[in-house]
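[User]
Protein folding is very new to me. Any chance you could explain this protein sequence and its structure tokens? I have pasted everything here:
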Amino acid sequence: MSFINSIIKVFVGNKSQKDVKALQPYLNKIKTFETPLQSLSHDELRGRTVFFKEKIKQARSEKDAKISALKLEVEKIEDIDKREDIYVAIDALEKEAYDISEKTLMEILPEAFAVVKETARRFKDNTQIVVTATAKDRELSATKPYITLEGDNAIWANSWNAAGKEITWDMIHYDVQLIGGMVLHEGKISEMQTGEGKTLVATLPLYLNALTGNGVHLVTVNDYLAKRDSTWKAPLFEFHGLTVECIDNYQPSSEGRKKAYDADITYGTNNEFGFDYLRDNMAHSPEDLVQRKHNYAIVDEVDSVLIDDARTPLIISGPVPQGDRHEFNELKPKIENLVALQRQLANGFLSEAKKLIKEGNTKDGGFLLLRAYRSLPKNKALIKFLSEEGIKQLLQKTENQYMQDNNREMHKVDEALYFVIEEKNNQVELTDNGIKYLSGDTDSDFFVLPDIGTEIAAIEKKKLDKDAEAEEKERLFQDFGIKSERIHTLTQLLKAYTLFEKDVEYVIMDNKIMIVDEQTGRIMDGRRYSDGLHQAIEAKENVKIEAATQTFATVTLQNYFRMYSKLAGMTGTAVTEAGELWQIYKLDVVEIPTNRGMARKDKEDFIYKTTREKFNAVIEDVTELSKAGRPVLIGTTSVEISELLSRMLKMRGVTHNVLNAKMHKQEAQIVEEAGKPGVVTIATNMAGRGTDIKLSAEVKAAGGLAIVGTERHDSRRVDRQLRGRAGRQGDPGSSQFYVSLEDNLMRLFGSERVAKVMDRMGLEEGEVIQHSMMTKSIERAQKKVEENNFGVRKRLLEYDDVMNAQREVVYKRRRHALFGERLKLDIANMLYDTCELIVDENKGSNNFKNFEFELIRYFSITSPVSESEFNKLSEIELTGKVYKATLEFYTQKTERSAREAFPIIQNVFENENNQFERIIVPFSDGIKSLNVVTNLKKAYETQGAQLVADFEKNITLAIVDEAWKKHLRKMDELKQSVQLAVHEQKDPLLIYKLEAFKLFRKMLDGVNKEVISFLFKGDLPQQNTIQEAKEVRKKDNYTTTKDEYPNTDELSAQNSEAGQTQPRQVTETIVRDAPKINRNDTVTIKNVSNGTTETMKYKKAESLVTSGQWVIVND
């Protein structure tokens, strides 16, 4: 294939070369501005920024004027339909204005880039720059020590503090950086090698796009980089009057955070940008919002953020009633015993298999070997045996034989086991033997789910009276809920014990389980495995089991970043994921040539049979390189391996540093030492991103930094990141990867050809193979994993797209309520939808009586149509008549409310003793009450209209928020339950989309009815209930986390555990607003129309409560 590609390149050309060539005319144009700009004074150079801003403003002035005129016009229009048309016109004009701004930016790009380059040159060439002080200079000089004032002049120094480190500006953009900046401005990904100055490249499009005043975001992978880059590059922008802030310097939802977003250029971490978006959509006042519109973002290390982090949704959650109720500690001993028994079995199968294979009985030996593999695939004795000649081929041949015809014969292998581990799919499943063992000291059905359909049919056959039948059914559902939760707990414990290893997938720090990111090797602070798995690991490691939480708001990074009008990114390793970045984000990858030629030598992989031989060879090589005076960086894939190599080097007496998730606090210090002569550094993948290892002349002469990779990672990008630490800016260096057939990648995805070649050659212990064919074979294995991971991420996105469509509707409605300008239109639409729903429900059954009752129940009005008209008119005509009558009634009601409330407001406002800014007015519909906060002065000036507007806003927000929280729980449960559709040969995603639509439709209908009902029934406040609203804000008990979700293809396998055929109910996420009422409990109910109360059993009261005429009251 590579040969064919090389032929095509000869005729068609290389894509990256074509991309770069297309930008050459712009580069030439930038160069034409360089000399004229050099002749300008400092003040004249700063004046170009003012000129650019004015040019953009002039270009879009016509559209902006039209938008302002329409916004004034819409306030005077009462007709709802006309208002809607104007809002549509405003949205279209804003889109046109944005397009004009983008076109103007492309026109000024060459000169703007040249201005940034000239500014960088002046800061490098001058220790001080003296300019005429502007108001901005005077404001900045109060907080920025590098700006001092002398009379009418401002003096800018070229040295300042960047995140605790004193720096002197010494950089000027070179040509390839200008090309990289153009790529970023076009909304593409700029792939630049390590040491090519990506943070400097970003200054070009940041300056250009900040000129519009719409805000630009620079997104980093951690807060250190955000804080460092924002202070390091800030003077370049501030010199031109642009403001620069970093959101990570301020607390969430604070004034400082809001100020950071209002800056022209805002730096921050991907998580904080996402969490601020969620917090904004939980706010109850426009003053609480911190973010502006999502205009333009540049994502640093774009592959890490948009690919590696894409599977981890950002979640804001709160406490759940009884969230600390679980059975992990009770069931843990059973699982510990089960795993110990299986280990004994696996060792027995392995020793018997060895004996039979030695005797030449490969059929029975292969069968037992497969059993041992499916029992415990990570058993070290098994892994060692598989590295012997011909053994791996035998296992693969036997596995293929039993897997054919859709695993038809596999049950023969699994029947002796207690559970089966599918290592490739990261799944574990209990067998009948396992269930039998676990139920040994209890009821035989202790871990068996009842078949709901069959059991309900059996109950109905008994012909019991209604109450007895209902009680039996309730007991059945309770039994199902308890058992499904028990089975779920067991399965998660089993996964914790068999698939998750300490110091590989997680570490224990401060008595807490901390997840280690497999791509970066860094601690993922705040991230928890979802669905009870984290609690299972906590039980396994005997640390405190944290309580379950409920989701209040969630978004994936994929969908957050797709909200930006323009998105760009930069990294050193995006080309291997170019297909995914285009398919999901429509981001094109452009490879930027290096400023100096690459001098690093990348050697072919060394392939050994066993890990022992491999590690011995690594230690030999490292010792030699260190003696030669070269610094060595040893790359490992886990904390466990880094600690093993550390022990081996200590035995050799080689001094070294270790950088892994446990030592992350010493990262900066270790990286600073890593480039010194003879220094050996063992690092996990965390040494990959945002770290530059600088070399002295002595080290360069000795051959530069030596990279030694101890294992090939699942992803080629991670290997390229490790290699990229050496050879920056034309420095010498080398990279060498060591691989063994026992490595995870080779065991699971390595080609059979590699094992066959090694067997044919009859390699002795310690002998090695090194050939380009072998290296390519390993890269093919990596591609298999990458394709699989892409499939997983794409599937997750398809699920989240459903949620995202719903999220946009709900958040849009919240925004309208928050700002109030489009709320009247939303209320009119809710009113129409509710009228349509009532008409559709009753017209179909021709039930005029219920139609009349529902109009009284929701709108407090009598029917505007007679029974004969109801029978004669169509649904559309009926809806129109009801809508017209209800809208007229509501308009009159709000006018009356404002009129009647005004004397009370007037009395409070004109009383000299009441110096209140805001007041609280209680409203009630007879069942619920709501305190409405309103601005006293505005309410007085608008003669009570502002109070009515605040009433509408508050009730809409309160009802939408509560319904959305409940809906999120239902969606979580739906996502789990639909995975069972695979057993019916159906696509779970399709079922999910259909059911999610029904749930959302039901939620919206419920919200519409509830909001309209409260608005129509809301009582006017009484004079003596108005009081001052104090600025005491309740602190929300929220937590922000990143949930590590299992891949959705795994979920279907998990749901077949223990022969289960019904959806698993995730009971830990169920939240009740009040204690559960059983059918035989005694309750007190109250008639809403006359206030009478009665006490009776809930089963009799249920029908009265659901009719809406009675409500349950607390004793």
About this structure: The chain is about 55% helix and 15% strand. The two ends are 78 Å apart (CA to CA). Confidence is low (pLDDT under 50) at residues 1045-1074.
